[in-house]
Amino acid sequence: MNASSQGLLRQLRERLQELPEAQRSVVQVILDDPRAAVGATVEQLAQAAFVSMPTIVRTCRSFGHDSVREFMLALAQDLAVSGSYLHRSVLPGDSAQDVTSKITQAAVASLADLGRRIDAALIDRVADKLAEAHRIDCYSVGAASTFMASELQSRLFRLGRHANAIFDAHQQLVSASTLGPQGVAFVISHVGRMPYTLEAARFARAQGATVIALTQPDTPLAETADLLIGVSVPQDAVMRVGTEAYLAHLVVIEILMVRLAQKLGPQVAHGLQQFKQLLHRHGFDSAEYSGARDSQEGPHGDR
Predict the structure, then answer these.
(1) What are the residues whose beta carbons fall under 8 Å from the beta carbon of 97, sequence distance 6 or more?
(2) Residues 6 or more apart from 61 whose CB is under 8 A from it?
(3) Which CATH number fits domain 8-84: 2.60.40.3450, 1.20.1050.40, 1.10.10.10, 3.30.470.20?
(4) Does position 99 have pLDDT exceeding 50, yes or no?
(5) Which of 39, 66, 142, 299 is the most buried (most CB within 10 A)?
(6) First-last CA distance in the chain
(7) pLDDT higher than 80, residue 249
């Protein structure tokens, strides 16, 4: 090893703009998620940076390392010394601009990777099931998944689907026992290992319902599902379900709902526009509501 392993991340940041374009792309991918880069193959790095594999080798040599393996060892050692427990891409000495840029770029990179990996044919199969279902019950456990299940149920409701969001363990079992072959249990859990939700999913499937899972691949929930929408994002440094997992799940829900609306026909899109106009005119934050409230109150808020 011809160069010191200490300060490699700093070297990458400081020399980023002076590198040739292809090598700059490689270094940017590494800086966006250095921990993922350490575990990636040369081929994976090349695909992420949209460069050739020899370019990866040249980039490592330009920082004084004779091989990719030596470069990654130096990177791993640097991360062990200076790694942050706040965000995988942020170092303790980073400025506000660095933090802003790194977190934003990491999120963009994560969503771009989701876009490359998502199975369009699977999205259509899931949308078909949602369009045909007599009832769709959305199961979740924990704050993050519960937020997602509520969002999914709300979007389905606006599309005219009979949908419920169920968070209670006993209610999930009751739901699972009544769904039947025309029902869908849509289970959202990024961790994918919560015992009582797994039990409800298995019971729903035993009753003939279709189980759709939005979770990480290779989890017990993924193995239980009839249709798996697998979401893989880099592990968060602080939370079990981090911001990038939130964003990925929301994007998947958005894709599904748009595709479902297409399948349900133009009348659904017309209905969505009507809902938007209704809330604009009569919602709590509408001018009409504010005006009506003000007219009922005196100058000091008295009625």
Answers:
(1) none
(2) none
(3) 1.10.10.10
(4) yes
(5) 142
(6) 80
(7) yes
CA atoms within 13 A on the CB side of 261: 19
User: Cα–Cα distance between 183 and 300 in angstroms, integer?
Assistant: 54
Provide the token pair at 54: 């020899």
Whether residue 222 is predicted with pLDDT greater than 50 in this model: the reply is yes
Give the pLDDT band of residue 6 (cuts 50, 70, 90).
Answer: very low
pLDDT over threshold 90, residue 291: no
Q: Kindly write down the DSSP assignment for every residue of 63-97, as one continuous string.
A: TT-SSHHHHHHHHHHHHHHH--SS-TT--TT--HH
Place of tokens 């025309």: 182
Residues 200 and 177: their CA atoms lie apart, in Å, by: 9
Q: What tokens does 187 get?
A: 């289970």
Encoded tokens for 270 = 């017309």
Average pLDDT over residues 50-59: 95
- Residue among 165, 131, 162 nearest 145 (CA): 165
Q: Name residue 276's amino acid.
A: K
Highest CATH level, class, for 120-259 = alpha beta
Q: How many CB atoms lie within 10 A of CB 194?
A: 20
